[in-house]
Amino acid sequence: MSAVCIAATPIDGQALTQALRDPYCGGFVSFEGWVRNHNEGERVLRLEYEVYTPIAVSEGEKIIAEAKQRFAIDGARCVHREGMLALGDMAVWVGVTAAHRGPAFDACQYIIDNVKTRLPIWKKESYENGDSGWVNCEQPAAHGHAHG
Amino acid sequence: MSAVCIAATPIDGQALTQALRDPYCGGFVSFEGWVRNHNEGERVLRLEYEVYTPIAVSEGEKIIAEAKQRFAIDGARCVHREGMLALGDMAVWVGVTAAHRGPAFDACQYIIDNVKTRLPIWKKESYENGDSGWVNCEQPAAHGHAHG
Amino acid sequence: MTDKTLTVRYFALFRDLAGTAETALTSPAETTGELFDALATQWSFAEPRTHCKVAVNDELVDWQHPLSSGDIVLLFPPVAGG
Amino acid sequence: MTDKTLTVRYFALFRDLAGTAETALTSPAETTGELFDALATQWSFAEPRTHCKVAVNDELVDWQHPLSSGDIVLLFPPVAGG
């Protein structure tokens, strides 16, 4: 099982958590990113993720390896969705196991922070007002209204 | 549903996560504490949690209220087991939702840190060598060998 | 300094050491701290008071909390949740 | 300075602006940065280069990376995963 995966179907957080269970580890921290119904004041209807998978996976595995080097953790995995998502769907899941909780929190945050800024993944939001656009760096798409 | 709960039966993390889902929130951070097979070099066979529930719940709710005041989060819940647990069982679950992930990580860590130090909960470990004892403040029980 | 009639409840390690979960007693202790020190000597509690907690009538209180007759005092050894 | 034969692939917003996902072209650009600047002018990419990324033959590289004929260059607008 690869440490990083791009999924075209819904993410099963419970199955991923089970797979990381380790009798040696006492602490588990996870992050889930859900599609929310608003972005900078616009009501979001749905969302599409475009992913360039070869580099998303290789860069994601680099991030996990960095996290394992920096923090005293045991297991770490990340799954990111691609394609069309509806409100409330899970867009990304990160899970980390460790003997102690401090490093698990630090590593989980390190992984999601870097996944968001380094993986070639783009998000196109469709808004209630009919506009849609690519979201840049967690800002609403500057070109959104041009496509409306 | 109370924000804090002491459970005599296994914790269902997925159901708890679902219950916190909120279309306004994009980020979810959870912590799970699992019973691990060792503590300070001793092999642990099983574990028993004693809880004084009235104060565990009232103090836990105080901690959640503090977290909501300190950090920009929306939902937060904590469930702690009592009674006999086996290796790998979930002992504690904390989940936090927020519009942004930073506060969700901070609040989740705040809650588990305080739950561990402020709630009237005690842990008795049974070791492979026949000893058992109360674990004090995440240290192995000083009195463990006296009970062996 | 008059003796107070108190109910004391011991938890976890303290219950093992005292050999009972609950006892009724009379004590001249003015505060939770004085009561703890007397019982710690009686039952050989090794834990420093600062690592322990005390509740009176189901409210966590500090070691300067004054005691009254009829109080139910809960003595908590160092906690270890999570 | 000789022209190189390159394959350029555009993603997300850049694909919308260029009107194509992939194109073969010849360019005198010595580096990924020079190539980006030329194409950004051609297609009116507004994003500063420092917010974008580039890969050559499926490896992320920097904007000083030298180009060779036959390279497949991937142009990534600002990412927004998570």
Structure description:
Helices cover 30% and strands 37% of the residues of chain A. With 148 residues, chain A is of the alpha+beta class. Chain A is elongated and about 50 Å long. The C terminus of chain A is likely disordered. In chain C, strands 2-1-5-3-4 form a 5-stranded mixed beta sheet. The model of chain C has no long low-confidence stretch (mean pLDDT 96). Helix content of chain C is 23%, strand content 30%. Chains in contact: A-B, A-D, B-C. Chains A and B meet through helix 1, strand 2 and helix 3 of A and helix 1, strand 2 and helix 3 of B. Strand 2 of chain A pairs antiparallel with strand 2 of chain B.
What is the strand and helix layout of this fold?
The complex is a heterotetramer, with 2 copies of chain A (148 residues) and 2 copies of chain C (82 residues).
Chain A (H helix, E strand, L loop, with lengths): L3 E4 L5 H8 L6 E8 L3 E2 L2 E10 L1 H18 L4 E7 L1 E4 L3 E9 L2 H18 L2 E7 L4 E4 L13
Parallel strand pairs in A: 1-5
Antiparallel strand pairs in A: 2-7, 3-4, 4-6, 4-8, 5-7, 8-9
Helix pairs in contact in A: 2-3
Chain C lengths: L3 E7 L1 H7 L3 E6 L4 H12 L9 E4 L2 E3 L10 E5 L6
Parallel strand pairs in C: 1-5
Antiparallel strand pairs in C: 1-2, 3-4, 3-5
